[in-house]
Design brief:
alpha/beta; 6-stranded mixed β-sheet; globular
């Protein structure tokens, strides 16, 4: 039937280069977008041999000086003429800028970065690194940048309870965070499926709780479940934990450990069953599938609190973070309702019900942490039964929990699953790998992440002060490998960095998605890294109505190619290569399917975008 359509495809001999976004000055490539950029007149070819001058530091910190040299080494100019250039790093306590803010100036003398904190100097160097990389050996325009973060807390979480990840990946994850000015690494270390941190007082947490008998292969929502029946095991020794904390600190990132309680504790119970409800609890096994399990720590036994306090004592020696995360989410009350110990605790403390018992549990642990000079973070379920006095709330079930906490004058970190759960697929497509997302619409696209505003207008000006930041989470039920993890977070972590750092009025979705993200993804592609290739820019998965259509498309990765088909079949890299706007005329009563995809220089591909071009009567 294709011969009955009139297809008009014009201008196919236009050069591909005319279709690429106009070349941008390297200064305009920075993610997250800086607060203020003032371009100057003139330019400079920065030299890799420029001298590093440090002023105002009590002692030259190795982290800053070494990183400065690494940044300069990216400059391809090594001529003797550049030896007079200077990279001046100035630490000034009364610099008049917020914490983590910096000023960066590039002129004929070289580069100057000014900040009131070492972290601010580090972030200035990260911006300089992006500029030098984008310049690719070419001249850089003179510029003055004044930059500061929107929020003090800018986090990214990694769940290693469901699946263990090697030390090399943990460090690479931290590297990406540092490059995009994120400053809190939330390390989710304990789960129903595995306990991942060595506790010397309780050796069976490593020998027993760190393992499970097998792992679910298909989706939890499938009617029938299949398992690999292969033992799965892994944990981090205390020396490895110390190494991660040191490494993160060298990137000015704080590591926040999460020790789940009272729920998500099945793996711990498999090693120490006496901590469960009843007189003869257990035996328990670490879970092989995902979900919520009714077996939790007994809130009525003193042994439970002794155990958890001893665990936290060792955790506190490993993590200098002010914040300690205790979970507090998804803790069923069924076992507590039938447990004599829990019911006695409720009666003895004049508690109303099991929800207040959970509040008692959380408040008691918070009091212990506060006495040790630490602050507690919990998921928004800790609001139930009464919020602990000094707790910080991570709002994940939408934003209502965050609003409620801010209204009670508690600090809030916004982490709504609707936008910031990076384990959700980016698009509803059979081409996406298996994820926790299920159903016809559940997903979180790059645009969806970027569109989130952590500080809601429903809050008063005073209440807004309690929204201290934002975080994205990578839960790993369906993320078994580093490659899958990179696919899930890249490029969405770029959007996270911008909503965490860049003020609302400075955000620009078109510039972000069409200019800066394609550039950063091209760098990943050239380096052979794993990431998700976003869909073609300029067309959507929907029905377009009319008789004449024209689509001007852009690849989502700089210098990638677009291939398309008008046959209704999936396109491949031997189909029509997009080189100019596609023009299609569809006769009355007919429709045609246009399918497009992006193919990068390394061969990575996007999922297919399918547009139906319909000239049929619209029925109501």
């Amino acid at each position: 039937m294709m011969n009955k359509f009139i297809l008009v495809l014009t201008g196919l001999i236009v050069s591909v280069s005319t279709l690429q976004t106009k070349a941008q000055d390297p200064v305009q490539s920075i993610i997250p977008k800086p607060e203020h950029v003032q371009m100057g007149k003139g330019n400079i070819k920065l030299s890799a041999s420029a001298g590093v001058v440090m002023q105002g530091f009590g002692a030259n910190p190795n982290t800053i000086s070494q990183f400065a040299k690494q940044v300069l080494a990216q400059a391809k100019n090594t001529s003797a003429a550049g030896k007079g250039q200077k990279l001046s790093l100035t630490l000034k306590n009364n610099a008049g800028m917020v914490a983590d803010g910096y000023q960066l100036a590039i002129n004929e003398k070289g580069v100057r970065i000014l900040s009131s904190t070492e972290r601010g100097i580090f972030y200035g160097l990260q911006s300089l690194s992006q500029i030098i990389t984008a310049a690719n050996g070419n001249a850089i325009s003179f510029v003055s940048i004044k930059d500061e973060p929107r929020y003090p807390y800018r986090g990214l979480m990694l769940d290693v309870g469901r699946h263990y990840f090697p030390m090399s990946f943990i460090k690479a994850y931290i590297d990406v965070m540092a490059a995009y000015k994120l400053n809190y690494f939330h390390w989710h270390l304990t789960e129903d499926q595995g306990w991942r941190i060595e506790i010397k007082k309780y050796p069976k947490l490593a020998s027993i709780a760190s393992g499970r008998e097998g792992t679910l292969l298909n989706h939890l929502r499938d009617k029938e479940h299949f398992y690999d029946n292969e033992p799965y095991r892994g944990y981090y020794t205390q020396e490895e934990v110390k190494e991660v904390v040191r490494y993160a600190a060298s990137k000015y990132i704080t590591v926040i450990p999460e020790i789940e309680l009272p729920g998500h504790s099945l793996a711990a119970l498999s090693a120490y069953p006496e901590l469960g409800c009843g007189d003869h609890p257990g035996p328990y096994k670490a879970a092989m599938k995902w979900g919520i399990f009714e077996d939790v720590y007994c809130a009525g036994k003193e042994e439970t609190f002794t155990f958890l306090q001893n665990v936290l004592d060792e955790v506190l020696t490993l993590f200098p973070s002010t914040y300690i995360h205790i979970g507090g989410d998804e803790s069923p009350k069924a076992r507590w309702k039938t447990c004599n110990y829990c019911q006695k605790r409720i009666k003895d403390n004049g508690l109303k019900d099991e929800h207040e018992l959970q509040s008692y549990f959380v408040k008691r642990m918070e009091k212990y942490l506060n006495a040790k000079g630490r602050k507690m973070i919990g998921w928004d379920e800790i609001l139930e039964g009464g919020l602990a006095p000094n707790a910080t709330v991570m709002a994940w079930r939408g934003v209502k929990g965050g609003i409620a906490a801010a209204q009670q004058s508690h600090d809030v970190i916004m982490v709504p699953s609707s936008h910031l759960y990076l384990d959700h697929r980016e698009a509803v497509s059979a081409e996406e790998p298996i994820t926790i997302s299920h159903g016809p619409t559940r997903h979180s696209s790059l645009k969806n992440v970027y569109s989130f505003n952590p500080t809601l207008d429903t809050l008063t000006a005073e209440q807004k002060k309690y929204v201290i930041g934002v975080q994205a989470n990578l839960w790993t039920e369906y993320v078994k490998s580093p490659a899958k993890a990179w696919y899930m977070i890249l490029p969405r972590v770029y959007a996270l960095s911008e909503i965490a750092w860049t003020k609302l009025e400075n955000k620009d979705w078109d510039n972000f998605s069409k200019v800066r993200v394609p550039h950063h993804l091209e760098l990943l592609d050239k380096a052979g890294k794993t990431y998700r290739v976003p869909e073609v820019i300029g067309i959507e998965n929907k029905t377009y109505t009319g008789d004449r259509f024209e689509f001007t498309l852009q690849p989502s990765v700089k210098n990638a190619k677009i291939y398309y088909s008008l046959s209704g079949y999936e396109p491949s890299d031997v189909d029509q290569h997009y080189q100019s706007p596609i023009k299609v005329t569809v006769p009355a009563g007919k429709e045609i399917t246009l399918k497009c995809m992006v193919v990068t220089a390394s061969g990575r591909r996007s999922i297919v975008t399918t547009a139906t071009l319909s000239n049929k009567p619209i029925t109501k």
